Structure formats: C-alpha cells, structure tokens
Amino acid sequence: MYAPLTPLALILRLNTELFLNCVDGVDDAIAVRRVTERANSIAFLATHLVDTRHYTASVLEAPLPSPIPQAVARARSLDEAGPLPRMAELVAAWEAVSAHLAVRVERLDATFLTQPGGAFPGSDGTMLGSLAFLVQHESYHIGQLALLRRQLGLPAMAYLLRDREPGRRGA
C-alpha cells in the first residue's frame, strides 16, 4: 500500500467495524425511530453511509452499483426520503461495499492519488484530499449513529474489531 494512504485505510477499516457496532441490536422498529421531530433516524443515517461508501468507490474509479434507490440517495433528510431499506439489507450492503473499497484502497498509488480530485471542503484538490474528506464525512455520521443508539436506550457503541483476516486478531 502507498504509505501516505495507510492512516486513511486504517480509519476506513475502523469505520467499517464501528458502523456494524452502531447498528448491532438495532431492529427495523428501532431504526426508524427519531429522538426528536427534526432528527434523522438510524435507518436514514445507515442508508446515507452505505450510499456514501458507494460514492467513494466511484470517486476512486471503482464503481459498485448501489442498492440504495436514487430517490432515497438524493434525500438530505429523513423528511425527503422515501421508504428506507431494512437494516439487514443495509448491513449486507455495507459489508459488500466495504470489502470492495478495501481492495481498491489497497491498490491505489501515488500517481492516482496526486491527480486532481473533487472540490471537497478541506481538500487540497487531489484524489488523496478527496478521499480524506470522504473518510472524515463518514466518521462524522458514524458518530451520529453512536449518539442516536444511546439516545434510543441502547448500550454504547463498542470499539470492537472483528477478526476479518486469518492470523490477525481484532482489538
């Protein structure tokens, strides 16, 4: 892996697990609940995160078709969204896009990462800067998921990593 990319790859890996930890024990009835009239639900944030990971794969020129309907993907709040996918579908889609993205990130090189990227806040205008913003954006929403689960009466999110590679132990 291109060395400057290692910290972002580690955060993506951590975020993969934190998302799963945030939705652990969240059934479809809990997922659609709102803690206030203006707050988004866990289901909406999870949908947005799945779609954003698909967008990140596209930005990195490795698109994977998103299972999220366009009408829902374009919604900026729960009030704009149509019916949301079930939690089991979101978890399966998260696992699939996360595995796909992990492989793509592993293969990125300096030539690709230094070429012009999107105009994201805080980005230096390179593909690496674009990826950095997208990883930060994802981390922000995972924090929201963690807060919502507590506000809905569930235990705090755990910083537990699953063993995904033979010979490696989770933390």
Topology:
Blueprint: H1 6-23, H2 28-31, H3 42-59, H4 70-73, H5 87-107, H6 110-113, H7 127-151
Tags for this entry?
single chain; 171 residues; mainly alpha; Four Helix Bundle (Hemerythrin (Met), subunit A); 0% strand; globular; disordered C terminus
What does this structure look like?
By secondary structure, the chain is mainly α. The protein has one domain (3-151): dinb family like domain (Four Helix Bundle (Hemerythrin (Met), subunit A), Up-down Bundle), CATH 1.20.120.450. Helices cover 55% and strands 0% of the residues. The protein has helices spanning 6-23, 28-31, 42-59, 70-73, 87-107, 110-113, 127-151. It is globular and about 45 Å long. The chain starts with 5 loop residues before the first helix and ends in a 20-residue tail after the last helix. The model is unreliable at 167-171 (pLDDT under 50).
